[in-house]
Amino acid sequence: MNSTSRILGGLYGSLVGDALGVPVEFSSRSARKADPVTGMRARGMHCQPAGTWSDDGSLLLCSVESLAEKGFDPQDMGERFLKWFDLGHWGAHGLVFDIGNATRTALDRISLGTPAEEAGCKDQYSNGNGSIMRILPVVLDGLHLDEENFSSRLERASAITHAHARSKMACVFYGMMVRALTAGLSPQDALSQAQACFAGRYERSSEFSHFAHVMKDTIVEVPEHKIESGGYVIDTLTASLWCLLTTNSFSACVLKAVNLGDDTDTTGCVAGGLAGVFYGAEAIPAEWMAVLPRQNDLNLLFQTFTGKKLDG
User: Would you call 2 exposed, middle or buried from its count of C-beta atoms within 10 A (0-12, 13-18, 19+)?
Assistant: First the structure.
């Protein structure tokens, strides 16, 4: 599988997973078992058309645009996030209908002149999943970097909205997993490689113990009722890995993620990024891709991003 297919798979996979989860966000797991999501739906929680991505997808797309046009520039990235919040930039339909508390606080700070890299919340209660949901483009743009610079970029990008060490570390773990998948490793082998790299960088950190679940090779054996799917960054990381490791197709992975309930759009987005990178863009059902809005805009943006990657 060529690198373009994996990159596009990750980007489109994130949007598709997000859009599958939007109509049922905050619904319970029992509700999803009674009425499981099997494809794109309209209306629902946010009264949006089918295929609509949330703040997750919008901030991810702002990141793609920033990287494609400016290279890695956290200030530019943060200002584009603010443009989304103020003007609906890269909103599926030009509207903002959802935003996390920590992200809102950070964007308010940027609007008042705080440098983007200093805007993110640093307290331990600000470890939501608002940075891991948008980190994939930074991962894909930095695959050529050595481990130190690769990890540092992810930490700095996270800090725009989520500056606590736990959130930054979660983004790095996810990035290490994606990097291994882009190299063609199986999900289990990619997990083992990510675990080894992550331990080498962080095992002396006071935050390392919070990653105990994802540092076990037996995560695949964890029963569903022990997988949490709320807005906590560790839960989102764990659930997305579990969904990838316990399924054998893109569709099965993202549907499993969404049908865990609760923060369905973000779990779907993060799991969709992993599955898209592993299975490639061709594995995403065409009927799901077809209902995504702004098709021409997405195609042009992703062409620019992948072209930059291939050129450099």
Answer: exposed
Contacts of 23 (CB under 8 A, 6+ apart): 37, 41, 42, 43, 44, 45, 46, 48, 50
pLDDT of residue 1: 79
pLDDT, one tens digit per residue, over 128-186 is: 999 999 999 999 999 999 999 999 999 999 999 999 999 999 999 999 999 999 999 99
Which amino acid is present at 97? F
Report the percentage of the chain scoring pLDDT > 90. Answer: 95
Residues in the chain: 312
Taking alpha carbons only, the member of 199, 123, 131, 194 closest to residue 160 is 131
> What pLDDT is recorded for position 309?
56
Query: For residue 278, what are its two tokens?
Result: 């592993």
Give the pTM: 0.97
Residues 215 and 199: beta-carbon distance below 8 Å: yes
Q: Please answer whether residues 13 and 273 qualify as being in contact, where contact means their C-beta atoms are separated by less than 8 angstroms.
A: yes
Tens of pLDDT, residue by residue over 203-261, are 999 999 999 999 998 999 999 999 999 999 999 999 999 999 999 999 999 999 999 99
**Considering only CA atoms, which of 116, 112, 119, 114 is closest in space to residue 79?**
116
- In the chain the domains, ranked by start, together with CATH numbers, are 3-311 (1.10.4080.10)
**Farthest-apart Cα atoms in the chain, separation:** 49
Report the alpha-carbon distance of residue 197 to residue 245 in Å, rounded: 19
Give backbone dihedrals phi and psi of 300, rounded to 5 degrees, phi first. Answer: -65, -45
Q: How many CB atoms lie within 10 A of CB 226?
A: 9
Distance CA 163, CA 152 (A): 12
**Token pair listed for 197:** 């790299």
In 3D space, the residue among 269, 206, 200 whose CA is nearest the CA of residue 240 turns out to be 269
Distances in whole angstroms, Cα of residue 180 to Cα of each of 116, 125, 241: 29, 30, 13
Q: Which two tokens stand for residue 37?
A: 């999501």
Read off the amino acid at residue 296: N
